[in-house]
Amino acid sequence: MSETASYPDATVKAYDAIAFRYAEMVRGWLDGVPLDRAVLSAFAEVVRAAGAGPVAEVGCGPGHVTAHLRDLGLAAFGVDLSPVMIGIARDAYPDLRFEIGSMAALDLADGELGGIVSWYSVIHTPPRELPAYFREFRRALTPGGHLLLAFFEADGGPLAVFDHKVAPAYRWPIDDLAEVARDAGFTEFGRMLRAPGADERFRRGHLLLRLP
Where is the Methyltransferase domain (predicted)? Predict the structure, then answer.
């Protein structure tokens, strides 16, 4: 995907504009979602067991999930296209590494990572562009590396765009998203679906994937 395309530029501007409000909104959010924490813990356990290298949270926003991954024992760092988000993350977690960059073209050597977490970070990506993201994730991961995806799930419906509060986003049928990842060379070893919480509109999907 070319970073000159209009949708990443528009999405970055939208997140820059609401970055401080967004950071306040998600502060402490993980405390109230035990199933989400369980998925992150499972991911951390398999990555630690593999001992294969650092973990990048791509589209890290204000850094709260990156910090949680660190607390789970991972050598985690964050990458995001939004300069304002990266500034907030660096101020909040000065002991962690945060970089401005694109998950479509990671500034990393081939096979450098043991894991990647994409926590609602590909939700704004037009479906035709998504395979390129997965190919880039595969390039940056070591053989046997792990990938965790979190996304809005279609709940029995088709792939569809919706009016996300920041920028247009997509709800994916979990089987369809798993197929895109499989076509890029990933193998699924776990999934979790949960119902929306009191302040959430849609079911949440999670896929745990690894490379051969």
Answer: 55-145
Three-class SS of residue 124?
A: coil
**Which one, of 57, 31, 32, 33, lies nearest residue 44 by Cα?**
57
Contact 150, 174 (CB under 8 A): no
- Per-residue pLDDT of 13-60, as tens digits, reads 888 888 888 888 888 889 999 999 999 999 999 999 998 889 999 999
- With respect to residue 42, please indicate whether it lies within any of the assigned structural domains: yes
Q: How many domains in the chain?
A: 1
CATH number at residue 65: 3.40.50.150
In this structure, the number of other CB atoms found within 10 A of the CB of residue 150 comes to 21
Nearest in space to 177 (alpha carbons), one of 198, 159, 201: 159
Positive or negative CA dihedral for 134, 140, 146, 151? negative
**What are the residues whose beta carbons fall under 8 Å from the beta carbon of 130, sequence distance 6 or more?**
122, 180
Q: How far is CA 88 from the centre of its chain?
A: 18
Judge residue 12's burial from the number of C-beta atoms within 10 Å of its C-beta, 0-12 exposed, 13-18 middle, 19 or more buried.
Answer: buried
Residues 11 and 167 sit within 8 Å (Cβ to Cβ): yes
